[in-house]
Amino acid sequence: ADPAEPTFGDWISERCTFHAPGDGEGPKVLLWGDSHAAHLVPGLLELQGEAGFTLVEAAFAGCPPIVGYEEIDNPNCRTFNDGVAEFIRTERPDVVIFSSRWNAFKDPYFLDRILGETIEMVRKESIIPIVVGDSPSFAAPVPDIAFMLELRGMPSDKYIASNSFRADNAIEQLSTRMRFAYFQTRSELCPDNNCLLSKDNKLLYWDHSHLTVFGSIYLLKSMAEFLRRHLPAHDLAETGPSVTETMDGRR
Asked: How far apart are the first and last CA of the chain?
């Protein structure tokens, strides 16, 4: 591996910990994943005051949160995830939120197996697993798409995603089988399969697929009720629209 490439040794948990407001008590939530996990942080921090949880971010770009996974383009991914798994065993957070660019996996059956094994590892530690679905990806940067639509005199707040959401059904079926909480972002970000580019004239994405700060806060507000039900501390205010989730089937 290139010595300039980041490794797990570069991750310092204290620097990636956002303590709960007030006395700092409350559940500890580990957010584990790649850059599609990191873009959830602004929204999670917006909810922190209501929920009272401490957030620890363990995000490594291009590295899905799966123990034993080998990423050709990211040779340090496996050791990073091994380090996070050891952190989970020793520090014992109350909840682990898994978030990743799931739709990059070409084989949903492979994803089903390896993600299931990692969730089982977390469960053995009596830790609550939560999986967040993938955000849409677009064929070009969203600011460019919105600009071109405006030039053509067309509505610029919606566009069709370029990805197939192939992983959604696999994760949904896995969550039903293993009975863990799954938040499907597609129903919130892409109603009727027509994906939102902006809301209130503010862009939700800054590139092909990563949420802006505004987009992160917008999405996480829609997750507020979901988190209220699944975090150990049930004091999160019931805000935001209803969400689609999978927990022992649809509810």
From this structure: 46
The Cα 161–Cα 178 span in angstroms is 29
Q: How many CB atoms lie within 10 A of CB 102?
A: 26
**Taking CA 248 as the corner, what is the angle to CA 242 and CA 251, rounded to the nearest 5 degrees?**
25
Give the predicted TM-score (pTM) of the model: 0.88
The C-alpha angle with vertex 154 and arms to 39 and 103, in degrees rounded to 5, equals 35
How confident is the prediction along the chain (251 residues), in pLDDT tens digits per residue? 444 466 655 656 667 787 877 766 689 999 999 999 999 999 999 998 888 899 999 999 999 999 999 888 888 999 999 999 999 999 999 999 999 999 999 898 999 999 999 999 999 999 999 999 999 999 999 999 999 999 999 999 999 998 778 898 899 999 999 999 999 999 899 988 799 999 999 999 999 999 999 999 999 999 999 998 998 854 454 444 333 344 333 32
Question: Encoding tokens for residue 113?
Answer: 């197996």
Strand runs (DSSP E) across 119-237, as ranges?
128-132, 158-159, 181-183, 195-196, 198-199, 202-203
